[in-house]
Amino acid sequence: MNNDLKPFQFKKFAVAQDKTAMKIGTDGVLLGAWVTIPTTPSQLHCLDIGTGTGLLALMLAQRSENTIIDALDIDTAAFCQAKANFKVSDWSNRLNAFNTDLNTFKTKKKYNLIVCNPPFFQSIKHISTAREQARQAASLPFDVLIMHSKRLLAPLGELAVIIPLESQELFCEIAAKQGLFPYKITRVYGTSTSKAKRVLIQLAQSNQALITAKLVLEIARHQYTAAYKKLVKDFYLKL
Question: How many other CB atoms are found less than 10 A from the CB of residue 206?
Fold first, then answer.
């Protein structure tokens, strides 16, 4: 039986993922649990770019009752999947899905927080899976993401992403040219003896003291560290 046909059950919501090639992964859950959600005296507006199944938007909705989340995806199948997942959640009145390209997305809103688990595709000789095809088709260049994020952010708004560690320097260089500066960076390690492959970055529109950290996910296969379990405990059923 293909488990992708069954919704992935989190503690407070379920995510169907049978209609989109980009399935739920650790990266998205990490970003949704890790990102600092700004506080405002009024309603908070967030944007999830490249929402896929809608996972990040749902996590933000669970974490902050004062938040309205808009979610974009250029892929029609992903948009339909996210929209359906939003509809059956407890926060359907605060979640909006849009089937649109970031380049052409227009709104009068300015967002307090933008999140993105950007599709990245490293060149390989053969594209053999639907997931690899989806990554290539939906590839979002860093300069495009950062430029439009800057355009859509409120004056004190922030951007948060998870990207390959090897791309950190380039991403931060492009962001600095647009007036976005990292103030919170966490490198993600599979185990204490493995090399970091991902990095979580949150950026503000002013230079601030940089907070750096490392997060190790596992002690051994399926034996998770206390830090990882603490981070995702509000979401995963078995942690």
Answer: 9
Per-residue pLDDT tens for 94-120? 999 999 999 999 999 999 999 999 875
Distance in angstroms (rounded) separating the CA atoms of residues 44 and 37 = 9
How far apart CA 51 and CA 213 sit, in angstroms, is 26
Contact 71, 61 (CB under 8 A): no
8 A C-beta contact, residue 48 and residue 71: yes
Q: Whole-angstrom Cα distance, residue 235 to residue 238?
A: 9
The sign of the CA dihedral 169, 175, 177, 183 is: negative
What domains lie within the chain, and their CATH numbers? Answer: 3-232 (3.40.50.150)
**For residue 14, what is the enclosing H or E element?**
strand 14-15
Q: Residue 50: which region, alpha, beta or left (left: phi > 0; alpha: psi -120 to 50)?
A: left
Q: Which residues contact 41 (CB under 8 A, 6 or more apart)?
A: none
Helix (H) or strand (E) holding 26: helix 26-34
Strand 95-99, strand 67-73: pairing:
parallel
pTM: 0.91
Task: Say which residues have a Cβ less than 8 Å from residue 86's Cβ, sequence separation at least 6.
Answer: 54, 57, 58, 71, 92, 95, 96, 97
What is the chain's length?
239
Count the neighbouring beta carbons within 10 Å of the beta carbon of residue 106.
Answer: 8
Per DSSP bridges, beta strands 14-15 and 8-9 are antiparallel
| Nearest C-alpha neighbor of 171 from the set 89, 116, 216 | 116
